[in-house]
From TrEMBL:
A Pfam entry, by short name: 2OG-FeII_Oxy_2
Descriptive protein name: Fe2OG dioxygenase domain-containing protein
Region (Disordered), start-end ranges: 1-36
Gene Ontology CC, one term: mitochondrial matrix
Fe2OG dioxygenase domain location: 140-258
SUPFAM superfamilies linked to this entry: Clavaminate synthase-like
GO term, biological process aspect, one: DNA damage response
Length: 262
């Protein structure tokens, strides 16, 4: 895959580097849960072929960072008495604010690459995992969902509610899994009509491997026109011809609420 930086940086990335810096030597404002700059050596973004606006950073958090994040979530005391989900709106826990800042930093300074089959109508914007207007908004995220799944538990195919703005981030922890994307509505330039049909006439599902510590970003078509799901029933979690062993999985989803119309 060709790195987006080959042949010059995009204006979006240049502006972000200028605003947020490019040196990992400073530890001012260092968060307690994740360390700024710790992932700069392995932050590599990939545009998922076939789904415009879907980006994956497979090695977003190191093993130590994952452990610290899990400990911070555990200290909240949310997952007791069979409860497996917690939501927060507005003021987020400090570790979620720190995580949001690290996501922004990874977008700013990480290396971006474009999938071999991905088509870009605007090369400069597609070289950045999120459009610049979403990166510059404040707050970056103000709604969070933390989920804990037992082996076999997943999520049904859905598009996130329209009460949330464009630009959604999902951090995966503990168990690896495959998330599938399927078109909710036709969209130009995402996939060809030949690849949309299988033998049974159903839309093709685009699989994405979510390793522990990975980060997925959805914007544009990926956020509004594609459903995403995780089916962890026996025989459904297949990658490279083998079934993934399923363990407990924790995820953190970060979103931005749209202004109220009331």
């Amino acid at each position: 895959m060709a790195a987006a930086g080959d042949g010059g940086e995009s204006p979006c990335r240049d502006a972000l580097r200028e605003a947020f810096g490019d040196s990992s030597g400073s530890d001012s404002d260092a968060p307690a849960v994740v360390s700024p700059g710790a992932g700069r050596g392995h932050w590599r973004w990939e545009a998922v072929a076939g789904v415009r606006g879907l980006w994956l950073c497979a090695a977003f958090l190191s093993g130590d960072e994952q452990a610290r994040l899990l400990n911070a979530i555990q200290r909240e005391g949310w997952f007791v008495d069979a409860n497996n989900q917690a939501m927060r709106f507005g003021d987020l826990p400090s570790w979620a604010v720190e995580l949001s800042a690290l996501i922004r930093e990874a977008i700013c300074v990480g290396d971006a690459s474009v999938g071999l089959d991905a088509e870009a109508t605007n090369e400069d914007e597609d070289a950045c995992p999120l459009p610049s207007d979403l990166l510059w908004r404040e707050p970056f995220f103000d709604q969070m969902i933390a989920n804990r799944y037992k082996p076999g538990e997943g999520i049904c195919a859905h598009v996130d509610l329209m009460r949330f703005d464009d630009g959604i981030a999902i951090v995966s922890l503990e168990s690896a899994c495959v998330m599938h994307f399927s078109q909710a509505e036709p969209t130009r330039g995402s996939v060809s009509s030949d690849t949309l049909k299988q033998g049974d006439g159903e839309s093709t599902k685009v699989p994405v491997l979510l390793n522990p510590g990975s980060l997925v970003l959805m914007s544009g078509d990926a956020r509004y026109l594609w459903k995403h799901e995780i089916d962890r029933k026996p025989g459904r979690q297949l990658w490279d011809g083998r079934e993934l062993e399923q363990h407990r999985r924790t995820s953190v989803t970060l979103r931005k609420l749209l202004p109220s119309t009331d």
